[in-house]
Design a protein that fits this description.
The chain is an alpha+beta fold and about 240 residues long. The protein contains 9 helices and 5 strands, in the order αααααααββαβββα. A hairpin with a 6-residue loop joins β1 and β2.
Length: about 240
């Protein structure tokens, strides 16, 4: 009786833990995005408000412009939306500028330098790599790295894993094995930045109707985020 209750309790705790991390996976990018957006809007809004008031403090303190000076001090009360609107516009322009800069040689070099610094900082590197993987899987950049998703029998007979095909071998391993082979990457859960590299015969690949993005989401969520489609039956 006691062992049964203990087993049930452990199972429910494990489910709660899985639900928590699945929720954390969803909430973290949204929360960080919201926090960053609010921070950027406040930063630019406050800078614009300060510049606006400083302009009047310097140039319009004379008696004949007293009404304009008073108007500037009422700026926060009557035009808060304008402040944040200006901050929002600057945010859009800044993000667009960063995107444009990454298309240039100097911009790419700067981005590589920033990434190099971030991955050298403990804790920060883990957070950055995790967020980068999530954003890349959602934005679809992974689809350019991996050709497609397949199933392979790994790590032993009767167990199967999702694998991402990275390339097809033609001149290196294939002549040695005398059979067509492919290079695959098996990502680990919940951090897909690490994993293992395998050389697998093409005949042992099991096709699956799953996009690279959905495959990444399944791995990151430990299988709790599953696309709404039927999986093919596996013959064991």
């Amino acid at each position: 009786m006691f062992l049964t209750l203990k087993k049930i309790f452990s199972t429910e705790i494990q489910k709660l833990r899985n639900y928590f991390f699945a929720g954390l996976l969803v909430v973290t990018p949204i929360g960080l995005t919201f926090w960053m957006a609010v921070g950027i809007l406040n930063f630019f809004g406050n800078k614009f408000r300060w510049s606006f008031q400083a302009f009047f403090n310097v140039f319009y303190r004379q008696e004949e412009h007293a009404h304009l000076y008073a108007y500037a001090h009422k700026y926060d009360a009557y035009f808060p939306l304008f402040t944040y609107g200006f901050g929002f516009l600057l945010t859009i322009l800044l993000i667009s500028f960063v995107g444009m800069a990454t298309q240039m040689y100097l911009g790419r070099k700067t981005l590589n330098l920033v990434e190099f610094i971030l991955i050298k900082i403990p804790v920060i590197s883990s957070v950055y790599n995790g967020l980068k993987q999530v954003s890349e899987s959602i934005m679809g950049r992974r689809s350019k790295i991996f050709e497609r998703v397949v199933i392979i029998e790994y790590p032993r007979k009767g167990l199967y894993s999702l694998a991402f095909i990275t390339a097809k071998d033609k001149n290196l391993v294939e002549p040695i094995l005398n059979k067509p082979v492919v290079y695959v990457f098996i990502a680990t859960t919940p951090n897909p930045t690490s994993g293992i590299f395998l050389i697998v015969p093409e005949e042992e690949l099991i096709p699956i109707d799953l996009s690279v993005e959905d495959g990444m989401k399944m791995i990151i969520s430990s299988g709790m985020v599953v696309p709404k489609k039927d999986f093919p039956r596996l013959k064991i």
